[in-house]
Design goal:
The protein is α+β, with helices and mostly antiparallel strands. It is 13% helix and 31% strand. The C terminus is likely disordered. The structure holds zinc ion.
Amino acid sequence: MRPEPKVPGPLREANPAAILGAQWVFEPTPRVQLVREGPSLERTILEFEQDKLGDWFARLDCGHIQHVRHEPPFTERAWAATEVSRSESIGRALDCIRCDRRELPGGYRRYKQTPVFTVETVPGALLRAHGTKAGIWGRIVVTAGQLEFVEQGEPSVDEIVRAGERTVTRPGLKHLVRPSPDVEFHVEFLAPAARRTRRDRQLEDHLRGRRAGPPRRHGGRWA
Ligand SMILES: [Zn+2]
């Protein structure tokens, strides 16, 4: 079958800037995010755990988890296949795509936050390259004006964060902010919520036979 002859399409819409004419407002600082191509961020393996299906995953020092299935010939991870080789792998580095994507790890909660800063009150340390404590993620919340957020690393970040927007800082990476004169913002610090509660531990003890019965509730608190 012969291809249909090409019918000329409708005329392309004129440039919106031309339509708006004099009303068109030039935006000198559009929101930009320059995440450059490059190698993934390397994070350190802290421990290994099993999911509900029995598959092993590594918990990394950034707070992310990563499955480490050994499924030759598709995925060669012989080092993750045995108890001994896994324990020898603690402390070694793994590429973390979730850090590249700047995804906040699951289960992270805000535990501290700064006062609202203006250009007059912003601590000088935030204007110079600085980092957060190991494993701690930051969230910069801009409520007025805007700021430029620059973060080193592979990939690095250079973006404008406007009023009503927020951005994250990744653990272990130096970053700084360049606020506009009318900026108002604060910083939240996020850490993993306690992974195991007292009740979790009691339930584990019960399942291991170290406790006579399952934990019971007394007066709103778990015994
Ligand atoms: Zn990560």
